[in-house]
Amino acid sequence: MLIRKGTPADADRIAALHTASWRSAYATLMPAAYLQGPLAEEHREKWRTRTSALGADRLLLTAEEDGEVCGFLHLCTEDRRVHVDNLHVRPDRVGTGLGRRLLRRGFAWAATEYPGRDVFLEVLRGNDRAIVFYERQGGLRTAERPLRLAPGLVLDEIEYTWPAAQVGRLAEQEPQV
Predict the structure, then answer these.
(1) Whole-angstrom Cα distance, residue 74 to residue 44?
(2) pTM value?
(3) Nearest to 140 by CA among 165, 175, 110, 111
(4) For residue 56, which of 117, 115, 121, 113 has the smallest C-alpha distance?
(5) Residuewise pLDDT in 10s, the chain (177 residues)
(6) Number of Cβ atoms within 10 Å of the Cβ of 143
(7) What DSSP assignment string belongs to 53-121?
């Protein structure tokens, strides 16, 4: 498994994986019309824009095997913290340890580039598999709020935070990128 920094050339493959991940993980949380409708194009546009704007304040990692993107992680700085904006693995790779490896690589980047900053992310209420995963990785539930995903589509999200000292300890468990 090759884990490397993502580039603009990865945008469409990341968007496709992102869409497949949502369709699998959120099948019972979001309307099928949204998941099967505009989502794929929204993700293509989002990742083409994001990958064209990569800079020192962002990290995009892709995990590849045999030339196929199996997972990705996107982090950015926000509010004096580091935000795990996206962490997705191919649905058939869930539970293999790939998500943990990507998250720990992200912690290593945060500890090196932004020492002393907490790391946080949001997860949709009802995404029980992800909630269990983040809690096993030491995430602390720090907030809950509504999230507007599209017109008429509002779901509850839960924020998880890893305090800076914990990020540093977890970072030591993975090689830096």
Answers:
(1) 15
(2) 0.92
(3) 165
(4) 113
(5) 999 999 999 999 999 999 999 999 999 998 898 889 889 999 999 999 999 989 989 999 999 999 899 999 999 998 899 999 999 999 999 989 999 999 999 999 999 999 999 999 999 999 999 999 999 999 999 999 999 987 888 899 999 999 999 998 887 765 544
(6) 11
(7) T--TTEEEEEEEETTEEEEEEEEEEETTEEEEEEEEE-GGGTTSSHHHHHHHHHHHHHHHHSTT--EEE
* Distant-in-sequence, close-in-space partners of 143: CB < 8 Å, separation ≥ 6: 158, 159
Instruction: Name the CA dihedral angle for 61, 55, 16, 4, rounded to a multiple of 10 degrees.
Output: -20
Interatomic CA distance for residues 72 and 68, integer angstroms: 11
